[in-house]
Design brief:
Layout: H1 3-14, H2 18-25, H3 29-38, H4 47-54, H5 58-62, H6 81-92, H7 95-109
Domain HTH cro/C1-type: 13-61
Protein name: Helix-turn-helix transcriptional regulator
Keywords: DNA-binding
Length: 110
């Protein structure tokens, strides 16, 4: 995934428009639009400001997806607020609680 694609995913996740992103980073809207249209990445001198505005580390923005060793691929998807809350809550559960929740989910799915 291109760095610019990750940026656009994060913008969706955070509910931030390209205009707001432009204003907060000082990067012109036309430059941001070019990343999407031409499938290019921001220049290195803009990365730190982008990370600051999107509240991610440079590693999170620049890291390539890699196999987790279980046949699954790590990748980034935009989550809405409810999905984000659900995932964060799930990660805080103890293993027994996770198992019960997964059982309940299986029952809901029928």
């Amino acid at each position: 995934m291109l760095i610019s694609e990750k940026i656009f995913h994060l913008l969706v996740k955070k509910g931030m428009s390209q205009k707001e992103f432009s204003e907060q980073t000082g990067i012109s809207q036309s430059t941001i639009s070019d990343w999407k249209r031409k499938k290019t990445n921001p220049s290195a001198d803009k990365i730190l400001k982008i990370c600051e505005v999107l509240k991610v580390t440079p590693y999170e923005l620049l890291a390539e997806g890699k196999s987790s060793g279980k046949g699954k691929m790590d990748y980034m998807i935009a989550l809405n607020k409810d999905e984000e809350t659900l995932l964060e809550s799930f990660r805080e559960l103890e293993s027994g609680q996770r198992e019960r929740l997964m059982g309940y989910l299986a029952a809901l799915r029928g």
